[in-house]
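hey so i finally got around to running the thing on that chain from the lab meeting. sorry it took forever, my laptop kept dying and i had to restart like 3 times. anyway pasting the input first so we r on the same page abt which one it is
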Amino acid sequence: MRRVRLAVVYDTGAASPLELSLLAARYAPMAVIVGDSPHAAAMMPMFAEFDHVTTLAGAGVGVGGVVAGLDGAGLSADGIVTFSERMLVPTAVLAERLGLPFHTPAVAALLTDKHRQREALDAAGVTPVRHRPLTDPARWPEALAHTGLPAVVKPRHGEGSRDTHLLRDEAQAAAILPGLPPGAFVLEEYLEGRPEPIFGAYVSVECVAAAGTVTALAVTGKFRLLPPFRETGGFWPSHLSDTEQDEVAALAVAAVEALGVTTGLSHVEIKLTPAGPRIIEVNGRLGGGIAELAHRAAGLDLLDLAARIALGETPPVRRARPHRVYFQHNTVAPEEPCTVTAIHGIAAVSATPGVHRIRPFVRLGERLPGGVHTQELDMLTGDAADHAEMIRILDTALSRLAYELDGSRLYSAPRLDGARSHVASGVDGPPALDGAPSLDGASRVDGASRVDDASRVHGMSDCDGASGVDGAWRASR
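ok and heres what got predicted. didnt touch it at all, straight out
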């Protein structure tokens, strides 16, 4: 029987096919088990040269079929891991069937079901939050009587803040609840953040569990959310004092342990409230963008770390404390549907001192679906001597970047110092951007930071089919 060192269960998540190819070179022979989403199907050609590839796609191919397929191919594995939220439960079942260390199916269920996770955290006394399941909007009064207002309604299963809404009053609830898609939701009390003039009132804690011991690897600072809960990036180290970092790290470890996690990476989101830190949610996998941040800030390879733990190693882990500030910033798509017709200022952003790279994630001519979930248009990375310099660098860079939507209006990220309001998604008419490039004088993408690499990593276009018009990249018509 042929034995692979590592099996990776893949779907949309924190690791790209390109990053997995680097992992495969280190852990050959490596098997990839591809999920059943449209994204996973589109990525299949990128796994053509991997040692062994199988799929969960198709009505007759579930976890049992994958196990049978591995057996039929004469394959077994020494370890298994996933970097995808939606693949946590299938990976847990596979691991149990194959006798490999991973989250148990019961733990994976707690990690992916927001209602059951809250129940487990409440039972352990880890910052209890009032919550109720909501399977029928008609039961809203019953749930509201328990949680009170303001409250947050979100899917019991899901990621990226999809279909997640803040309900501040009865009128807002009456407008939003009937429009929710079918499925199970959970209603929670809203955790009001403490005043934060520049940064977000929340952080994430990246945790590592090996041989039953959970360690906080890093505290990730966050930029302010765009309404309702759309994330715009993060940075290492966070802006918190050492005492506060120790406090949120200890809370994250307590939450991970309360859910029964004994192995692998976890990403814990924590709200900073006037009464102290409180758990938002625990994710039982690597957080999005964290691998890139860890590599630049601390020289850490978190995919490799996850692989080593999956193979039964207990690598030494200590808190990362970078001496400079390393950041990622994302321009987030507007809530209204629109088409990206040009990107202005890429070269100017790339030339900004302190910027490492900017990678667009959207095709020119691409139709954006809109909605309240977090859809990233780009990733801007860089580093600075301190947090104040980081803000200056980002404000300079973001003032040079704009997306042309529907051929007639500009859209950009907000400045972080609050000097100018965010360009709302166009509901009130075309925005006027102070300091933003004009439609006629925008910088070209020429010399930008390797858009082609971004397309390979994220499955996006490298601007093929676009044409340079008026000094900007525009979609061909």
